């Protein structure tokens, strides 16, 4: 039996032997090291700063149990009804290996980035036995590493001004990968065979990692499962961070959201570093529930996140790596409420409203986008797919196109679409997570994380015999990709590489003999075509007063809440979900009014140019004067309207600030 002690660059560690015994296909043995610090703990003056190298220790450090999760809501993080330990001293990783790898020193490596909306969950959420069974064991011989990174304001917070340390959670992940490259040979892994894998928010972070100019050459492959690729902004999270700073007494409320001077910035961060971590977390949870503010995606910082993902993908300026990417058919279905029979009379107006919000916040020609969006999603009852098309399917194709344009291999999959949309003969025996994914709407299967139960085991329920068989086959697809760069389930059923022309993808479902449908073409062809051709995006970043980025969930939640007269917006109370609805509706009116003025000004300008020669000769410029009067009157009316609505909106938003005291 292999020794459970191992020496790494900063000291000696002692792990455990662990057997995975749950599978009917046999027990699997592993050697595990849990809770290894990969950087210096981000405590005190290191809070909100980029991670520093780990501190060495004397003696033997015991690494036999998971360590605390990063600062987050423990109930959401542990999903066990009672919670678990949380701490700022959370930057640990876990290694799962076996005797074969420890002896050969050549095993492939998979690093798992957990999901949780960048606000909760932890590497401790993964059941060690499932990771061992699906990847370390069954002669798959993969060294698995799972890692924590800072969450919420601790990992993605920013204030409106310059500060050296931004998006520190992304740097946490980069340091974890560097640790793996430096140390993994001690655990039997090959540093030149590293796959970075993530699901949901973990997949979005995986994409951010491989899109970064700072990470070139650190990994060789990526697995991107159900990634909600966000619309990034330079301002993301600064309003939420500002409100937290105000609540804990580190920033005066009268400051609002103005850009801070360097001196104000340092003073505010110094104050925040002096506060207990729990106080800051409590303030963050309060803001998420009892205000119109949100925390979300990383921001474009010019360092790790060098540019908007749209620009990076379009310019093919990413660092290409072999990629396995895929989605489930139902994902989150935030717009499913549009198909409810009770909303049938309002449906057209609701779709129009959603399309106008997207158009006026994200597109250069908003009225054109809004019309095309409304027409497309009202046709053939596509409305329930609107949010998933925008957030998941079009983005998966865009990413696959970007990576496949280089000399790399891209494989795309779709989990069980025909069973849901076309009622084909394939039907898998899903009995796992069940109602764990039906917290708000009654979503159809397969939902956002349902396939994950067969891979990493998250939110897993009791299995039937067929579920164990599916787990063996489906996890084998991912293990095969990690080991060989080819996810083909068998020689008889090869998985073809994706091309932008045919958009090949592997359809995953299981008949009674566990046979899968296999290769198909034209992945979500109509939706991908719509979102790729609907018009140029705008990156001017004009947001509603409480927002600093666009996220489809933060648009749909308030609309659905207002419609249902109860909160449908994640953690927010109905009071603030509804307040967000009215705020965004007022903001949309402002944007439409501003756009009308712009168009009228443009039309008058063109008419003035066209008429200048003829009118000047005929009446000494009288025509031009009339046009100028009309233009001046129109412009003045538009300015007065915008000023009036802005004042009203500012008053309403200010009232929201006062409620947060």
UniProtKB/TrEMBL annotation:
Which UniProt keyword terms apply here?
A: Hydrolase, Membrane, Serine esterase, Transmembrane, Transmembrane helix
> Which SUPFAM superfamilies does this UniProt record tie to the protein?
alpha/beta-Hydrolases
Which superkingdom heads the taxonomic lineage of this protein's source?
Answer: Eukaryota
TM ranges are 626-651
EC number per UniProt:
3.1.1.-
Q: Which Pfam families match?
A: COesterase
For the keyword Membrane, the answer is: yes
Q: Which EC class is the enzyme in?
A: hydrolase
Gene Ontology MF: a single term: carboxylic ester hydrolase activity
Q: Where is the signal peptide?
A: none
InterPro entries noted in UniProt: AB_hydrolase_fold (IPR029058), CarbesteraseB (IPR002018), Carboxylesterase_B_AS (IPR019826), Type-B_Carboxylest/Lipase (IPR050309)
Q: Which residues form the Carboxylesterase type B domain?
A: 7-531
| Listed Gene3D superfamilies | alpha/beta hydrolase
Which PANTHER family does UniProt cross-reference here?
CARBOXYLESTERASE
Which family is this protein grouped under?
Belongs to the type-B carboxylesterase/lipase family.
Protein's name in the database: Carboxylic ester hydrolase
């Amino acid at each position: 039996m292999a020794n459970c002690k191992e020496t790494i660059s900063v000291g000696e560690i002692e792990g455990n032997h662990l057997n995975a015994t749950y599978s009917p296909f046999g027990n699997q043995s592993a050697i595990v090291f849990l809770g290894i610090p990969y950087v210096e703990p981000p405590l005190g003056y290191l809070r909100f700063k980029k991670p520093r190298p780990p501190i060495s220790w004397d003696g033997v450090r015991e690494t036999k149990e998971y360590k605390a999760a990063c600062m987050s809501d423990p109930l959401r993080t542990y999903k066990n009804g009672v919670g678990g330990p949380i701490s700022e001293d959370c930057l640990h990783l876990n290694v799962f290996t076996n005797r074969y790898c420890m002896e050969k020193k050549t095993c492939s490596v998979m690093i798992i980035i957990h999901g949780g909306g960048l606000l909760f969950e932890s590497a401790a959420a993964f059941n060690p036995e499932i990771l061992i069974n699906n990847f370390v064991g069954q002669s798959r011989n993969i060294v698995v590493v799972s890692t924590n990174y800072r969450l919420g304001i601790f990992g993605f917070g920013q204030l409106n001004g310059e500060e050296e340390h931004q998006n520190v959670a992304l740097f946490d992940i980069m340091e974890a990968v560097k640790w793996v490259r430096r140390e993994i040979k001690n655990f039997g892994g090959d540093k030149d065979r590293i796959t970075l894998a993530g699901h949901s928010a973990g997949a979005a972070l995986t994409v951010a990692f491989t899109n970064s100019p700072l990470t070139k050459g650190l990994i060789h492959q990526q697995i991107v499962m159900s990634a909600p690729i966000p619309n990034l902004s330079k301002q993301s999270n600064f309003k939420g961070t500002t409100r937290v700073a105000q609540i804990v007494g580190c920033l005066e409320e009268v400051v609002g959201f103005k850009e801070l001077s360097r001196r104000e910035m340092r003073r505010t961060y110094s104050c925040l570093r002096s506060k207990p971590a729990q106080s800051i977390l409590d303030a963050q949870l309060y803001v998420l529930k009892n205000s119109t503010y949100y925390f979300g995606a990383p921001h474009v910082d010019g360092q790790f996140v060098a540019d908007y993902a749209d620009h990076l993908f379009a310019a093919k300026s990413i660092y290409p790596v072999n990629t396995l990417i895929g989605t489930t058919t139902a994902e989150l279905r935030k717009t499913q409420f549009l198909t409810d029979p009770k909303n049938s009379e309002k449906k057209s107006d609701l779709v129009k409203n959603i399309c106008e919000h997207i158009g006026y916040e994200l597109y250069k020609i908003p009225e054109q986008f809004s019309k095309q969006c409304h027409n497309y999603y009202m046709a053939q009852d596509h409305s329930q797919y609107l949010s998933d098309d925008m957030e998941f399917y079009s983005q998966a194709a865009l990413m696959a196109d970007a990576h496949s344009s280089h000399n790399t291999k891209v494989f795309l999959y779709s989990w069980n679409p025909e069973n849901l949309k076309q009622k084909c003969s394939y039907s898998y025996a899903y009995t796992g997570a069940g109602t764990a994914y039906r917290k708000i709407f009654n979503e159809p299967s397969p939902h956002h994380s349902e396939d994950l139960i067969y891979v990493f085991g998250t939110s897993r329920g009791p299995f039937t015999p067929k579920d164990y068989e599916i787990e063996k086959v489906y996890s084998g697809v991912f293990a095969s990709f990690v080991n060989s760069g080819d996810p083909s389930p068998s020689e008889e059923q090869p998985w073809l590489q994706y091309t932008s022309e045919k958009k090949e993808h592997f359809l995953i479902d299981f008949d009674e003999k566990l046979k899968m449908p296999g290769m198909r073409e034209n992945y979500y062809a109509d939706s991908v075509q719509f979102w790729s051709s609907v018009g140029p995006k705008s990156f001017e970043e004009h947001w509603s007063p409480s927002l600093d980025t666009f996220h489809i969930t933060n648009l749909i939640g308030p609309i659905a809440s207002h419609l249902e007269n109860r909160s449908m917006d994640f953690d927010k109370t109905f009071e603030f979900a509804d307040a967000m609805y009215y705020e965004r509706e007022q903001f949309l009116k402002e944007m439409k009014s501003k756009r009308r003025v712009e168009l009228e000004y443009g039309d008058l300008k063109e008419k003035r140019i066209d008429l200048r020669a003829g009118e000047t000769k005929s009446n000494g410029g009288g025509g031009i004067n009339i046009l100028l009067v009309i233009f001046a009157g129109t412009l003045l009316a538009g300015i007065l309207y915008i000023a009036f609505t802005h004042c009203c909106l500012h008053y309403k938003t200010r009232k929201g600030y006062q409620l947060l005291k």
